[in-house]
Structures are given as structure tokens and as C-alpha cells.
Amino acid sequence: MHQQPVVVAAPVGELDITRLDEVDAMLDSVPPDGRLIVDLSAVQFVDSVTLSRFVRALRRREVAGGRLVLAGAHGAVRRVLAITRLDAVLPYEDDVDSARAYLRALE
After folding, report:
1. What dihedral do alpha carbons 88, 57, 14, 93 form, nearest 10°?
2. DSSP state of 5
3. Does the residue 48 lie in any domain?
4. Binning pLDDT at 50, 70 and 90, where does residue 32 land?
5. Fewer CB within 10 Å, N- or C-terminus of the chain?
6. Any idea what DSSP says for residue 73?
7. How far apart are CA 81 and CA 102, in angstroms?
């Protein structure tokens, strides 16, 4: 079986309720059976609604055989992932290269 290419989405700034359409479009830009890395290295804030979108996208991908990995979170974003324990639910790597290696290891 030929694996689909890995797509890296790299949002910038604050991901909050005012940007949900953009977040949804980013998460839907890759078919559910595809592989998506969300590079959060240029994101300074993420709200709970956005985090719930990430979880929903992960679940949809799991059902379809796809993958979603978050990467590069730092500062407040990394703390929110840790405090909410979503870093244990959502696959997370320290950077995009590590996320790619994670995806390769699953093949």
C-alpha cells in the first residue's frame, strides 16, 4: 500500500474561536486517511475550542486510517497541552522532523 505524503500545516499567531474556520480548513485540507503534522512553533496561544477541533480531527483520522501529529508547541501552548493532558491524547513531538520520524515508525 502506498502511503500518502505527509502534509505540514503551520498556523501562525493565536488560534482561538475567531479563527475556527481557518483551523477547520487546515484540518480538512488533508483527507481523513492522510497524514497531517500541525506545526505549532509559530503559535502563541490556543484555546479550548481549537484543542477540541484537534481531538475531533484525530478521532476522525483514526477511524479512516490516517494520522495527525502536533509538533513544536512551546510556551503557553505547550503548557496548555500539558495541563489539559492533551499531550497524552494527541500525538505530540518536539519538532516537525521528530513528527515525521514518528509517522515513519508507524508504517
Report:
1. 40
2. P
3. yes
4. very high
5. N
6. -
7. 19
1 lies in some domain: no
Among residues 63, 40, 67, 65, the alpha carbon closest in space to that of 51 is found at 40
**8 Å CB contact between 36 and 4:** no
pLDDT in tens, 73-93: 999 999 999 999 998 899 999
User: Strand 13-15 and strand 43-46: pairing?
Assistant: parallel
Range of the domain at 23: 6-106
Pairing of strands 6-9, 43-46: unpaired
CATH number at residue 62: 3.30.750.24
- Number of domains observed in the structure of the chain: 1
